[in-house]
Amino acid sequence: MQGRLHRPPSDAPAGIVHLGLGAFFRAHGAVFIAEAMEATDGDWGIIGVSLQSPGTRDRLKAQGWAYTALELGPEGEASQVVTVLRDVLVAPEDPQAVLDAMAAPTVRIISLTVTEKGYCHEPSTGRLNADHPDIRHDISNPLPKSAPGFLVRALQARRAANLPPFTVLCCDNLPENGRVVRGVVMDLARLIDPALASWIEEKGAFPSTMVDRIVPATTPADLDRLEALTGQRDEAPVMHEPFRQWVVEDRFADGRPDLAAVGVQLVDDVTPFEHMKLRMLNGTHSSLAYLGYLAGHETIADTMADPVFARFVDRLWTEEIIPALTPPPGEDLHAYARALHDRYANPAIRHRTWQIAMDGSQKLPQRILGTIAERRAAGRQVPGLTLAVAAWMRYASGQDEAGRAIEVKDPLAPQLAALWRDDPAETVAGFLSLSQVFPPALRDDAGFAADLTEALRRLVRDGARAAADV
């Protein structure tokens, strides 16, 4: 063995600061940007920022910020060393250092993967939650805590220095994510300085994007297997499937890497692409996660190996989701569904159902509830997606089908658990009262409440597998 992976860190200035340096961005956006730099010789190195803990920084620092991206294909594995990172900062340790990096003249893009809950907004409306504790802090303190707070305060510093604004490039699974992030930034900026808000509105850029790559959590066994494969110990690798897609609206405030050179789709409107992905991939991923977890399946691949759930997800695509979508230019939705089926079934991808099940109150509005609302407004039934919502409710109760405790990771976890009742109708009424989750069209839909009650009753009585086998 050659010892631990290490590359001499580059002292070249960064062109991008990324908030939320988790596994997904390091396996997706960072790889695209590294390849674009290699293809066109531009220097768009990345400063990563952890908004929570120093773990990723500490593991990467000893490696000169280099890490391995390991592709997990059905036929085997392939690795590449990614050296695009220039530094990693930890926001709670030194928020001023993060603001200084974001306000540096060489930085022209701030990208984000902070998960849906990181935007401190109401998922059902997309507006800033001004009562969020971090937002209340950020309104009155120049050193922020939240992702919107860092964006607004860094833009404030750039305006004071007579620098142009950076482009805000959201890479999270939010519908019209650029519009949503622009909205929360503008809402917060107005509360801090209306003149700043006007400057952002005039000069800022918030292109929407669609990202697609399955990135399972890295395990200790993955570290050992990668060391045997490469001969080097990497304490911060990322695992990913072969497939990748990145669709970006080509609206930048001050330049960008040559993303098209490495296969990024640059478009005028990303909406049809994001609807396709959010509803066909993320919506079914969540559906399989809740039902599969309740049925005792550890991973999505395990769930897909069960013919009941494989048939169930195929019905979701063909009968409930695809009929509600407009295909993006050049896309065949049925072919996309077949490709998703194969990707989910890839046994090399150990994407755990509990991992996908996290933060359901933030994810369901855009992944599932939008499709349900549209289909019901058109007079159509959506029994499969309704069962998926019931499965989320069952999961959020904090107990699985065998009565074992579930560690529910969700911003609303205590509130969700408190809504569970022995009577399914009472449980449904409680959940439907959550205005931050369910849109008015579903909260006021007596027919949906009845269907959801029956789905939950069947789920509790028969179990997830039997309930899905229709």
Q: Low-confidence runs (pLDDT<50, min 5 residues)?
A: none
CATH superfamily of the largest domain: NAD(P)-binding Rossmann-like Domain
- What is the helix content? 40-55%
CATH class membership of the largest domain: Alpha Beta
Structure annotation, total helices: 21
Strand content: 5-15%
**Count of spatially separate domains:** 2
Number of E-state strands: 11
Shape: globular
Topology:
Layout: E1 16-19, H1 23-27, H2 29-40, E2 46-50, H3 55-61, E3 67-73, E4 76-82, E5 85-90, H4 95-102, E6 109-112, H5 133-140, H6 147-160, E7 167-170, H7 177-192, H8 194-203, E8 209-212, H9 220-230, E9 238-240, E10 245-249, E11 265-267, H10 271-294, H11 300-305, H12 307-321, H13 333-345, H14 353-357, H15 360-377, H16 383-396, H17 413-418, H18 424-432, H19 440-443, H20 446-462, H21 464-468
Helix pairs in contact: 4-6, 6-7, 7-8, 10-12, 10-13, 10-15, 10-16, 15-16, 16-20, 18-20
Describe the structure.
The protein is of the alpha/beta class and 470 residues long. It folds into 2 domains: 16-267, Rossmann fold, CATH 3.40.50.720; 271-468, N-(1-d-carboxylethyl)-l-norvaline Dehydrogenase, domain 2, CATH 1.10.1040. The chain has helices at 23-27, 29-40, 55-61, 95-102, 133-140, 147-160, 177-192, 194-203, 220-230, 271-294, 300-305, 307-321, 333-345, 353-357, 360-377, 383-396, 413-418, 424-432, 440-443, 446-462, 464-468; strands at 16-19, 46-50, 67-73, 76-82, 85-90, 109-112, 167-170, 209-212, 238-240, 245-249, 265-267. Strand 3 (67-73) and strand 4 (76-82) form a beta hairpin. Helix 6 crosses helix 7 (177-192) and helix 16 crosses helix 20 (446-462). The N and C termini lie far apart (53 Å).
